[in-house]
Amino acid sequence: MSRAFIFPGQGAQAIGMGRDLAEAYPAARAVFDEVDEALGESLSALIWEGDAETLTLTQNAQPALMATSLAAMRALEAEGVTIGAAAFVAGHSLGEYSALTAAGSLTLADAARLLRLRGKAMQEAVPVGEGAMAAVLGLDLAAVRKLVAEAAAGEVLAAANDNDPAQVVISGAKAAVERAAALAKEAGAKRALMLPVSAPFHCALMAPAARVMAEALDDVHISAPAVPLVANVTADRVTDEATIRSLLVEQVCGAVRWRESVAFMVGQGVTEFWEIGAGKALSGMVRRIHKEASVQAVGTAADVSAAARSLTA
What we know:
Blueprint: E1 2-7, H1 19-24, H2 26-39, H3 43-49, H4 52-56, H5 58-78, E2 88-91, H6 95-102, H7 108-124, E3 131-137, H8 141-151, E4 157-164, E5 167-173, H9 174-184, E6 191-194, H10 207-218, E7 229-230, E8 237-238, H11 241-253, H12 258-267, E9 270-276, H13 281-289, E10 294-298, H14 301-312
Parallel strand pairs: 1-2, 1-9, 9-10
Antiparallel strand pairs: 3-5, 3-6, 4-5, 7-8
Helix pairs in contact: 2-5, 2-7, 5-6, 5-7, 7-10, 8-9, 10-11
């Protein structure tokens, strides 16, 4: 059975995530300690004892989710499950940094600092209130692109996340997103939900953040991953360091092609997906993309034990 390790993105954060991993596995605790040191503050205290509103701030949520995913990965390694148990790694938006760190392309400290910067840059790229995102449910990508073309009216509006066959997230200027959401039902959507996000991610309005990340990534060493990454913006495998660097920059404004990424991995023989880190959002997406896939969430100490047992059963 071929498997992929997949890593969640923003929205999966929750107070307390990863704490039982840190208590059960010294290697997992060391991840949080290293991230705290890299950032020069106790992010772990915020994750475990802080308030949800502060954790949800983009600059906090991004490194916090990466830390939780890597803590789960280190716990798996303590149980004898290495990155070599996966044929591919992939991550949703910021989760791509988690995937690359798990596969050895980025150091944990570099990933933490890059995600802190990425979060700040994405937040600052657009003044608060000028951008928005909405989830369109019940329409496929082609239908949403048609809706976007109709609603844009000269403003920035894009299909930002192609999550699964019936969920596409749109992003752009607030008025354009609101127009698209209002038109969605007429186009056949079940619902169009405005999302509680602080900036319009994965659209052209993020260009200032892309420039910040291009400069930052130029100063960071990237190694070839131990297993291929399936990249957000291409939905294809990549192992070349220079290409990875370029795609991480492109990803800031580019669409997250998650549905196609999962379909690519299935086409390469992947039958089992392990969601490494907080929440189960990606697990639900995978099931809607490929109903026959085996999906396993690995975000707690109990999940780690169960996953490790499944390899030896």
